[in-house]
Design a protein that fits this description.
Blueprint (H helix, E strand, L loop, with lengths): L5 E3 L2 E5 L5 H10 L1 H4 L17 H15 L4 E7 L2 E12 L5 E8 L8 H17 L3 E6 L4 H9 L3 E12 L2 E11 L7 H14 L2
Parallel strand pairs: 5-6
Antiparallel strand pairs: 1-2, 2-3, 3-4, 4-5, 6-8, 7-8
Helix pairs in contact: 1-3, 4-6
Length: 203
C-alpha cells in the first residue's frame, strides 16, 4: 500500500520521506511543551531528543508499515511547508477494515483548520480508494482542540475508554470518536468545504 499525495490547497498530504528527519526533529523539539501533554509515552516518537537517529528510525518504521499495508503515514503541509503529521495506523483488514487516526500540528500553524482539512482528505482516501470501512480517533477528554477537529467533521462520540493509553507519565482515559463509510457516502471533503464556506460567510 502506498500513501499518495492528496491535495486540498493550501493544505496537502504527502508521503513521509527520509529527508524529512531533520525538519521533523526541529519541529518536534520546538513543540515539545505543546505536544507532550497529549502524546503517548513512546520512545519511538521523541519530543525532546536532540540527536537525529530516533527520527531517522521513525521515518523508516513508518515507510515499512506503509509497505506492509498496516499504516498510511503522511506529512501535513501548508503552503508547501511541513506543518505536522497525520497517520492512519493500526490498520486491520479482513472483516474489520478499520484503522486508528492520529495527528499533530506545529503550534505556529494551529487554528487555521489545517488538520480538519487534512483529515477529511485522508478519510475520503481511506474509504473511497483504499476500501476501509471504519476509522477511529482516541482523544484525551481534556484535549479540547483535538476533539474539536473530529467533532467539526462529524465523527461520533462513542464514549470513554478507561485508562486506554500511557500519556505523559500515567494511564489516561480517552474519548473514542468514529466514522464509517456509510456515514459519508458522498465523501467527507465536500461536506467539510461547505461547512467552512458557511462559517466564513457567517451563515
Amino acid at each position: 500500500m502506498t500513501e499518495p499525495e492528496l491535495l486540498g490547497a493550501p493544505v496537502a498530504l504527502r508521503p513521509v520521506r527520509m529527508s524529512d528527519a531533520r525538519t521533523w526533529r526541529e519541529i518536534r523539539v520546538r513543540n515539545a511543551p505543546w505536544l507532550r501533554p497529549w502524546e503517548p509515552t513512546n520512545p519511538e516518537t521523541p519530543l525532546h531528543r536532540s540527536s537525529l537517529g530516533p527520527y531517522v528510525s521513525l521515518v523508516r518504521t513508518m515507510r515499512r508499515e506503509a509497505r506492509q499495508g498496516i499504516a498510511l503515514p503522511w506529512v501535513v503541509t501548508y503552503g508547501g511547508d511541513f506543518a505536522g503529521q497525520l497517520t492512519i495506523g493500526s490498520i486491520v483488514w479482513g472483516s474489520s477494515r478499520s484503522g486508528q487516526v492520529g495527528y499533530w500540528i506545529d503550534e505556529r500553524f494551529a487554528g487555521r483548520d489545517i488538520i480538519p482539512t487534512a483529515l477529511a482528505m485522508a478519510v475520503d482516501h481511506c474509504f473511497a480508494v483504499v476500501g476501509m470501512h471504519r476509522l477511529e480517533a482516541s482523544i484525551r477528554p481534556e484535549n479540547v482542540a483535538s476533539r474539536r477537529v473530529v467533532e467539526k467533521l462529524g465523527f461520533r462520540d462513542e464514549g470513554v475508554r478507561v485508562r486506554q493509553l500511557h500519556i505523559n507519565g500515567a494511564w489516561r482515559d480517552h474519548v473514542c470518536y468514529a466514522v464509517t463509510a456509510e456515514e459519508v457516502p458522498h465523501g467527507l471533503m465536500p461536506r467539510w468545504r461547505s461547512s467552512l464556506a458557511a462559517s466564513r460567510s457567517g451563515a
